[in-house]
Amino acid sequence: MIEPGKITVYTGGHRGTEEYFGTSAEKWGMQEVTLNFEGHDISRDRGLRMLSDEELSQGGVSPAIITKRLERSFAKTTYMQKIFQVQFHIVNSGYQVFAAGWLLSNGTVKGGTGWGVELAKLFNRPVYLFEQERKEWVSWVNNEWITEDPVICHKTLGVTGTRYLSDEGKQAIDELFERSFSISV
After folding, report:
1. What is the CATH number of the domain that holds 75?
2. What number is the average pLDDT over the span 28-40?
3. Does the structure show a pLDDT above 80 at 70?
4. What is the pTM of this model?
5. Which of 42, 115, 119, 154 is a good FRET partner for 128, with 20 to 30 A between their CA atoms?
6. Which domain holds residue 107?
């Protein structure tokens, strides 16, 4: 078991999943890095690191690739591209990836969270989603989603997710931390 103080959590500091996960990580004594860009409002800024345009561009992907991968389109604005570029930096920085949201019928995750999850799959990272409708954790294993209760077991975590985190989602995050770090006697 890794000591919580030796773990760094990377998020974008958004309201909901990222904010709640960050608050939980702080309670457990983890390091936190919040990645953002100029002109973007966030809810949590512990360990704030502002990404330059040059750094953001390292995570640039054609909107056509994102559309093809997620089987849906998003706004092609510079602002939206920067959001996707931050997702790249979160996933690229954190080895184990956690998210909260909703699975769609095509196996992708709803909203912008979907791009972070797709990147984790592309980078072959252990990725876990708290599926809010099903109220359970799922993991991407052998090209399919399976039910699995995760444990935090890496020194770097990438976190993304819905702004509309449910009470069950909060409870699932709390239980994740307990399961990962509480010593049973």
Report:
1. 3.40.50.450
2. 97
3. yes
4. 0.96
5. 42
6. 4-181
